[in-house]
Amino acid sequence: MPSRHRRSSLSLNPNLTPLLDVVLQLITFFMMLVHFGTRLEGASKAVRLPVAPAALPGSDLAFDRLTVVMDAQGRLQAGDEWLDEEAASTWWVRQAKVRREGLKSIREKGPSAETNELSTIVILRADRTASYGSVRRALAAAQEQGFVHFSLVVLRRHGR
Predict the structure, then answer these.
(1) Sign of the C-alpha dihedral, residues 52, 57, 62, 66?
(2) Is 5 a domain residue?
(3) Is residue 33 part of a domain?
(4) I want to staple 52 with a disulfide (CB 3.0 to 4.6 A). Which of 15, 86, 94, 154 is the partner?
(5) What pLDDT, on a 0 to 100 scale, did the predictor assign at position 20?
(6) Is-contact 139 133, C-beta < 8 A?
């Protein structure tokens, strides 16, 4: 009677190609999601952002955005120069004027809507040690010129 199960020296060689495909796809997927944080809009080494456990990423990807950086002394950064409160007020006036002129040229081609409010989203990156009064004065100066949409940037705290 012949043996039903004959043991031989055969070894199993599993096909690893599907496993490697999945691993490479996962690596590619995570590489695309990695946020290196070196080229953030308005990022500055002189400004340390506050940390909040409930901070969420901004979901509004508006066309017209204005990023403003405030240091610990309450000065605004415009380009490569830092502006005190008086110079910042003049800067807000210029920014509003530029945006209104741009809106006028767009409205000539499309429907007109007369309003003093600007649709620009002002993104404020204030240093964590900047006083609330400095931040509030900067926002008030922007509001006086018609800016009404603001986003304050903070870092999310991971864990406890």
Answers:
(1) positive
(2) no
(3) no
(4) 154
(5) 93
(6) no
Phi and psi at residue 88, to the nearest 5°: -65, -35
pLDDT band at 99 (very low <50, low <70, confident <90, very high): confident
Q: Which of 99-103, 122-126, 155-159 has the lowest mean pLDDT?
A: 155-159
Residue with tokens 């009404």: 148
Please check whether residue 126 is in contact with residue 154, taking contact to mean a CB–CB distance below 8 angstroms: no
Which whole-number Å values give the CA distances from 139 to 70, 81, 94, in the listed order? 11, 19, 15
The identity of residue 136, as a single letter, is R
Decide if 42 is inside a domain: no
Residue 88 belongs to domain spanning: 51-156
Q: What is the pTM of this model?
A: 0.56
Residue 116 lies inside a defined structural domain of this protein: yes
Residues 72-111: b if buried by 16+ CB within 10 A, e if exposed: eebbbbbeeebbeeeebbebbeebbeebeeebeeeeeeee
Sequence-distant (6+) residues with CB within 8 A of 117 are: 146, 148
Domain count, the chain: 1
Strands (DSSP E) contained in the chain are 51-52, 65-70, 76-78, 81-83, 118-126, 147-152, 155-156
